[in-house]
TrEMBL record:
Keyword Nucleotidyltransferase: no
Membrane topology type: Multi-pass membrane protein
PANTHER family, sorted: ARGININE EXPORTER PROTEIN ARGO (PTHR30086), ARGININE EXPORTER PROTEIN ARGO-RELATED (PTHR30086:SF20)
GO cellular component: plasma membrane
Record organism: Modestobacter versicolor
The protein, known as: LysE family translocator
Residue spans crossing the bilayer: 6-28, 40-65, 71-88, 130-151, 157-175
Keyword terms of this UniProt record: Cell membrane, Membrane, Transmembrane, Transmembrane helix
Coiled-coil parts of chain: none
One Pfam family hit: LysE
Length: 208
């Protein structure tokens, strides 16, 4: 890899990863809903989607999606609807205020699948991720860079995002005594739901 360009790319990627967005909200929501196991699987789902989209962009498939307007719009609106669905679920949970205790039990297949699915779908239907790989990433590479180098940069971003999400989940797990309080969980669910609605609305209005 071109070491200078790679480190600069990682610095920019780290800033973008740290800015709260749909992935942040979904990881928080899953950690609140199922504790550390589900939160970690959600983080893996987000990273899996990043790896898939980054590889697709490196192979030229991402540019095809952006050029085919009906396909791009279908993915975009699927993502908007999914964020709204998750928002409604979070707000409904806050209104009900009925929560199971964090018992520290290991994740079962259903918990793992639910977390991974929500993380993957939230990220893969976010067109900004694909735009990042197609528009931002190439600026850190010299002309004529091969597919392998592009994929390497993209996968570096996926790993960086995974590390950030895992740190977030572990931090929330350490604060589980506070998070276990019904009032706190209701407040967090309400804030997360409103944030997800906001992200969905922003996606809906940014490009017609």
């Amino acid at each position: 890899m071109q070491s200078t360009g790679w480190w600069t790319f990682l610095l920019v990627a780290a800033v973008l990863v740290a800015v709260p967005g749909p992935d942040f909200a979904v990881v928080v929501r899953n950690t609140l809903a199922g504790g550390r196991p589900r939160g970690l699987w959600c983080a893996v789902g987000v990273a899996t989607s990043n790896a898939v989209q980054g590889t697709a962009a490196a192979a030229g498939l991402g540019a095809l999606v952006l050029r085919v307007e009906p396909l791009f719009q279908a993915i975009r609106w699927a993502g908007i609807c999914y964020l709204v669905l998750l928002a409604v679920q979070s707000i409904r949970s806050a209104v009900r205020g009925e929560y199971a205790a964090f018992d520290g039990a290991p994740a079962g297949a259903a918990v793992a699948w639910a977390g991974w699915r929500q993380g993957f779908l939230s990220n893969v239907t976010n067109p900004k991720v694909l735009v990042f790989y197609l528009a931002v990433l190439p600026q850190f590479l010299s002309p004529g860079a091969g597919v392998g180098l592009l994929a390497g940069y993209a996968l570096s971003h996926a790993v960086l995002g995974l590390a950030w999400s895992v740190a977030l989940v572990l931090l929330m797990d350490r604060a589980r005594r506070v998070l276990a309080r019904r009032r706190v969980r209701r407040s967090l669910d309400a804030v997360t739901g409103v944030a997800l609605l906001g992200f969905g609305a922003r996606l809906a209005t940014e490009r017609g």
